[in-house]
Amino acid sequence: MQFEYKRTSVQETQPFYRTIDEFDHPAQFKNVPRENPSYIDIILKKDKSSPYINDLNDVIPLLEKLQKCIQNNGNIQKFNAISSSIIDHADYIAQKYADKPERYYISFSKLQNIAAHVRTVATLRCESLVYIKYLAAQGEGQIYSKESLQEQIDMLERDLDITIKILKDST
User: Fold this and answer.
1) 40 Cβ partners below 8 Å, 6+ apart?
2) How far apart are CA 90 and CA 48, in angstroms?
3) What is the 3-state secondary structure (H, E, C) of 86-109?
4) Torsion angle of C-alpha atoms 9, 12, 13, 19, degrees rounded to 10
């Protein structure tokens, strides 16, 4: 009731700009304040993910590549190349976050554990190529047998699957 007069009376408004040319004149535009940190953070939506998450995102494709290599029965050279990359990334992350709270994350410990497991299996596979000729007849050569190696690889594949899931859940 109190605003009924607004509905019945006709109000005319004037546009602020008379023409589109007056509004869209490039000379009147201000330059983007790229040196202003608040503009970068708020307007441009600077990446908000933590460096730890970015580091994990770098490792996940390597773990998936190793998993695919195992599933496809890739050769030892390819296996060791991927393993070396994983170990290097895990060492880098361990050094970078040694004094930070991220070292207490489950994803951090799982990454370090899988890197150690990958190192063990890669070493075992390389040693088996050298020593199987000499130790096959003795009981000490059992660790280098095809069955033993396959068992280690199967355990690694299960651990890889669990670790990949944990890392993906973390990111």
Assistant:
1) 34, 46
2) 23
3) HHHHHHHHHHHCCCCHHHHCHHHH
4) 160
- Is residue 83 within 8 Å of 66, Cβ to Cβ? yes
Inter-residue contact 82 to 66 (CB < 8 Å) = yes
14-32 pLDDT, tens digit each? 666 555 555 556 566 666 6
Going 34 to 37 to 42 to 48, the CA torsion angle's sign is: positive
pTM for this model (two decimals): 0.70
* Residue from 47, 165, 171 nearest 114 by CA: 165
44 secondary structure, DSSP code: S
* Average pLDDT score over the chain: 83
The string of pLDDT tens digits covering residues 40-54 is 666 666 666 789 999
Cβ–Cβ < 8 Å for 76, 123: no
